[in-house]
Amino acid sequence: MYGYFTYRKSWIRPTVAVSYGWGSRSDYSEREEQLIDLRLRRRGFTYINTEESISDFSLIASIRHDFYWLDVLTYKDHIRFTPQLSFTSGTQKFGFNQKSNTYVNVLRNNSSVLYSSDNVYLDDELKFQPLALTMNFRGEYSMGKFFIQPQFALDYYFPATTDNFSSFFSINVGFMF
């Protein structure tokens, strides 16, 4: 879920956005293995039940301004340049739970015996904290139905212990019918 509010009546447009995302996945698998027990020498199966879940709440504050230039090369073109500064904070919760049961088949009487059981529970929960500071530069040149839109972003991710800084560049080119 995502919602935002932008105040459009000032030269600088402030925006506040709130988002919440969640999801889960379950997986069940059966894996046949050759379990070598020096005493029994039996064939066995491992059953793995995995459950993963995620939830994320974010609060984003940003400011931006659109600069426009009309009729630059022709009377039907324009250039727009939009710098935007965004600050993101939030919480993140990732969970991973796995249960493994290993059964061996006793060939003498065709029965299954629980050989071993293993549980893994990992739950990484982060508190509400600053997440990122992003400077985004968007451009657009449009002439008639043709447009080109370059974008460059610089991002600083606060929780990382190393490699906090990242950047990306993208470009969209299109024609509207």
Rg from alpha-carbon coordinates: 27 Å
Q: Major beta sheet, specifics?
A: 8 strands, antiparallel
How large is the count of helical segments? 0
Helicity range? under 10%
How much strand content do the residues show? over 45%
The rough form would be described as: elongated
**Tally of individual domains:** 1
Cα end-to-end separation = 32 Å
Poorly predicted runs: 32-41
Q: Could you tell me the mean pLDDT?
A: 80
Total beta strands = 8
Q: Give me the secondary-structure category.
A: mainly beta
Question: What is the H-and-E element order?
Answer: EEEEEEEE
What does the model show?
- The structure is a single chain.
- The chain is an all-beta fold and 177 residues long.
- The chain has one domain (21-175).
- It contains no helices and 8 strands.
- It has strands at residues 2-6, 13-35, 42-64, 67-70, 77-106, 111-143, 146-157, 165-175.
- Strands 1, 2, 3, 4, 5, 6, 7 and 8 form an 8-stranded antiparallel sheet that branches.
- Strand 7 and strand 8 (165-175) form a beta hairpin.
- The radius of gyration is 27 Å and the shape is elongated.
- The model is unreliable at 32-41 (pLDDT under 50).
